[in-house]
Design a protein that fits this description.
The chain has 324 residues and is of the alpha/beta class. It has two domains: 112 residues, Rossmann fold (3-Layer(aba) Sandwich), CATH 3.40.50.720; 173 residues, Dihydrodipicolinate Reductase, domain 2, CATH 3.30.360.10. Helices cover 36% and strands 26% of the residues. The protein has ten helices and 15 strands. It has a seven-stranded mixed β-sheet. A six-stranded parallel β-sheet has the order 3-2-1-4-5-6, with helices on both faces. Strand 13 and strand 14 form a beta hairpin.
Length: 324
Amino acid sequence: MKIGIISFAHMHANSYAAAINEMEGVTLAGIADENEERGSKSSQLFDTVYYKNYQDLLDSDIDAVIVTSENSLHHQHVIAAAKAGKHVLCEKPLATNLKDIEEMIRVCEQNGILLGTAFPVRFNTPIQHAKKVLEEGVLGDILAIKGTNRGTNPGGWFIDKAKSGGGAVLDHTVHVVDIMRWFTGAEVKEVYAEIGNIYIDHQIDDCGILTIEFTNGMFATLDCSWSRNSAYPTWGDVTMEIIGTNGTLKIDAFSQKIDFYSNQEGVNWIGWGDDMDTGLIEDFVASVREGRAPLATGHSGMKAVEVALAAYQSFEKKAPVKLI
């Protein structure tokens, strides 16, 4: 199988490329990036062909493409890939508005193209173990979930709203909301949000607290922020505390680590566990080979973005926003 990557604007492109190069029977056949310096360096690093124009990559004999461009360009790149007959894995958030996402899903379906959303947290071992516990009914009926996704400010185009579509609330809501939906099978009914800008000197949201009601009667809170400073041992966290009628379950998605203390570098976390990004790429490759939907589909990506956008609407209106 031949896979291409469109843009190395998103940092995850590097881990996706590395994962592809480690897989048997899969080739990273090309990298397209309008930033010539970045694209050339990336193609040399991962030993593949560089294309300045993404359409030239799509015109080649690749089977699938991974879109890791700025959020505002996802729609353009996914539509072009679908029309070129290439299966697509798109970085989250799938797009910056629901109209674009709906068109992306529709055009992929019309062209017989698989569309996956890059939700690597689904492939994290603690998360997958929790999913099994919930499916076995150990916790009983789920009453509430408290979640966090608190990271460091990524800077660059992430804090340019024209390119990102939003700050920390859009960037971090989608991951945990996707897991909540995946765990329970419930849809989000209503969203209320408090959003702020207190950590960075730039006019974009860098923190938010969401209160979410679901169709099964469950409610959840989510801290989605860029509240970790530069001295934090890693980029951030994903945690959940699930309260059921028969017990509670606490999850730390990044607990597979060693605490390393250095006089020169301070405290760092050295991960020893699984690689979520590799799991994501392996699932996408398998879905293309088997002609089945990826674990996280375009629809999953849309439902997660829907909640983030509702959070912004709620903050503007100073009132809850109903989705169903």
